[in-house]
Write a structure and sequence with these properties.
Order of helices and strands: HEEEEEEEEEEEEEEEEEE
CATH class: Mainly Beta
Helix content: under 10%
Structural class: mainly beta
Strand content: over 45%
CATH topology: Porin
Number of domains: 1
Low-confidence stretches: 1-7, 17-21
Largest sheet: 14 strands, antiparallel, barrel
Strand order of the largest sheet: 1-2-3-4-5-7-8-11-13-14-15-16-17-18
Shape: globular
CATH superfamily: monomeric porin ompg
Mean pLDDT: 84
Number of helices: 1
Length: 295
């Protein structure tokens, strides 16, 4: 029991340091829920999209990061789309819930290329159980008393170039930088959210009849932090299921499976294993589940 507590304390410290750089949740299924980070995707597909994403990191470790997301998008008129997203993200003593509305406008470049511009507007509720810091032996700055239960408004912007075979996207999901908990040399104090910039691209390559190779890349930049790179390669068979792997630079590798249960339902599962983990003996990896409905 003592050993598990020690592992958890180490994990908390590492997670807090990591979150100081990468404060937005990571997603293995980023290609399929892209409007969580880019409002230009809202209504970019034909018909209405409704999605659910659940991610449990370091499964079996009490208080480890968990994220639940719901997304919605639909075209309103010929060149206008709207969407919405709800994200609940919990990491040890921190919990934040974001609700946002998306608006997109399509510019027809030519017969094969559409360029979408997006605007995201919403609010974020942030809570930090500062009393819980005592559990991990971390000293709290007195100013943290003012951070629990904070409420902030935010905006985001994005662009999305779409072709039948490939796409390219650039976005900043949250432009403003409200206060949040930050860990620095044994002291928990008030810090700031850092602006995240995302650049994504993907290409579908037909290998044979009803077999498609689908490589995708997501590059994210956070101020004063190393670039984060996700590379995912999936192979689609008979438009029925996708199978492949994902790689996050110097962090983890994932196995991915997406089953197209019907024309209107996709179900996905991903298992992610970290290259290094201080709680490897009690860590059951990271699990992510995707459910997308096309209405």
């Amino acid at each position: 029991m003592k050993l598990k507590l020690i592992y958890t304390i180490i994990l908390f410290a590492l997670a807090t340091v990591s979150l100081s750089a990468q404060q937005e949740p990571n997603y293995t299924f980023y290609r399929y829920n892209m409007n969580l980070i880019n409002p230009a995707y809202a209504g970019a597909n034909e018909g209405t999209d409704l999605g659910l994403n659940v991610r449990s990191q370091w499964a079996s470790v009490e208080g480890a990061p968990e994220t639940q997301s719901v997304i919605f998008g639909t075209p309103l008129r010929k060149n206008v789309g709207i969407g919405a997203s709800i994200i609940n993200d919990r990491t040890f003593i921190e919990n934040q819930t974001s609700i946002a509305l998306d608006f997109s406008y399509k510019l027809k470049l030519n017969e094969k290329h559409d360029l979408f511009f997006g605007l995201k507007a919403g609010f974020n509720s942030y809570k930090a159980n500062t009393a819980g810091l005592m559990t991990y032996g971390i000293q709290a700055d007195p100013s943290l008393m003012n951070i629990d239960g904070s409420f902030n408004v935010n905006i985001g912007i994005g662009a999305y170039l779409k072709n039948d075979k490939y796409f390219l996207a650039l976005s900043i999901p949250r432009v403003l930088t409200p206060d949040r908990l930050e860990y620095d040399d044994g002291l928990a104090k008030i810090g700031m959210d850092k602006m995240h910039v995302y650049l994504a691209g993907g290409y579908d390559i037909a290998l044979a009849d009803k077999i498609v190779l689908k490589p995708t890349v997501l590059l994210s930049y956070v101020e004063a932090s190393p670039l984060s790179l996700d590379v995912t390669t999936l192979v689609e068979f008979n438009n029925r299921f996708d199978i492949g792997v994902g790689y996050r630079l110097d962090e983890s590798i994932s196995g991915i499976l997406i089953f197209k249960a019907s024309k209107w339902m996709d179900i996905g599962y991903a298992y992610e294993a970290a290259f290094e983990s201080p709680v490897r003996t009690i860590d059951n990896g990271t699990h992510e589940i995707l459910l997308n409905l096309k209405l």
